[in-house]
Amino acid sequence: MAIKIQCPSCGASLSAPDSYHGKTVACPKCNNRFPALTEQERQIEEERRRVEEEKKQAEKERQRLEAQHREAETAKYWEQERERIREEEKRKDALRKSGKLRVIPVEWWILAVFLPIVGLILGIIATAQERENGVALLLVSIVFPFLWGVLLGLALAG
Predict the structure, then answer these.
(1) Greatest pairwise CA separation for the chain in angstroms
(2) pTM for the structure as a whole
(3) Is the model's pLDDT at 158 over the cut of 70?
(4) What is the pLDDT of residues 94-143, one digit of tens each?
(5) Rounded CA gap, 2 and 9, in Å?
(6) Could you please report the per-residue DSSP string of the chain?
(7) Which backbone phi and psi does 23 adopt, to 5 degrees?
(8) Is the alpha carbon torsion for 147, 151, 156, 158 positive or negative?
(9) What is the rounded average pLDDT for all residues in the chain?
């Protein structure tokens, strides 16, 4: 028994033996190669392809929307961060104008960090050389940052 098939390219109606069912055949009119499927099978195959294409399009749209959402969330975050920084700057400006906020000079920070480190190094060297003032120098270099902090605090408070 022969199956009725139709060329998807030129639309020619053809007959093919049952043994050709599902195999690739060539149209005698346009030489287009296509699988020998009945009209109902061809429609099912076209529907399956259409559904697959719709799934791909839906996935692309989902990915696009997710990316758009991430971009919007990122933009929202950075806008909030800019607003927070502006508010912090306003607050600091108000404190500066009122005299309640004082800035510690860089030189003080250098002294606060540099001198204890130098004292610590010198104390370690003196202790290693077994000098009598090595341990005292070590203790002073350890206590000095605390004393300096108190002095800075008093200077800023007064």
Answers:
(1) 116
(2) 0.39
(3) no
(4) 887 887 766 777 777 777 777 777 777 777 777 778 777 777 777 777 77
(5) 21
(6) -EEEEE-TTT--EEEEEGGGTTSEEE-TTT--EEE---HHHHHHHHHHHHHHHHHHHHHHHHHHHHHHHHHHHHHHHHHHHHHHHHHHHHHHHHHHHHT---PPPHHHHHHHHHHHHHHHHHHHHHHHTT-TTHHHHHHHHHHHHHHHHHHHHHHHH-
(7) -90, 165
(8) positive
(9) 83
CA dihedral 119, 120, 126, 130 (to 10 degrees): 140
Other beta carbons less than 10 A from residue 108's beta carbon: 14
Q: What is the mean pLDDT of the segment spanning 33-56?
A: 87
Which region, left, alpha or beta, applies to residue 11 given φ > 0 means left and ψ of -120 to 50 means alpha? left
